[in-house]
Specification:
By secondary structure, this protein is an alpha+beta fold. It has three helices and four strands. A hairpin with a 6-residue loop joins strand 2 and strand 3.
């Protein structure tokens, strides 16, 4: 399995749009073959901080996920809604 954990900062004025986008992304991702788990959550301690957890069966599932049209469209939109870049870590 391959796991990615991303921490993101979202300005309060973008929180609703970010959560709407990520709800869509999670729903679409969880329908893909090879996606074990895809979810996001908001920090209870830092109101502007979110985490995204992605778990894939293997590298082929990671590649297939990244190649979908809807991912290529949603990534630029998510980057418009956050401050800076995601802090992303990979685990195997």
């Amino acid at each position: 399995m391959i796991t990615f954990i991303a921490h993101l900062r979202v300005p309060p004025e973008n929180a609703d749009a970010f959560e709407e986008l990520m709800t869509y992304v999670a729903a679409m991702s969880n329908q893909e073959p090879g996606v074990i788990h895809y979810a996001f959550a908001k920090s209870v301690d830092e109101a502007d901080t979110y985490v995204v957890v992605e778990v894939y069966q293997d590298q082929e599932a990671v590649a297939a996920h990244g190649a979908t049209d809807w991912v290529r469209q949603s990534v630029p939109r998510s980057l418009e809604l956050i401050d800076g870049l995601p802090q992303l870590k990979q685990y195997v």
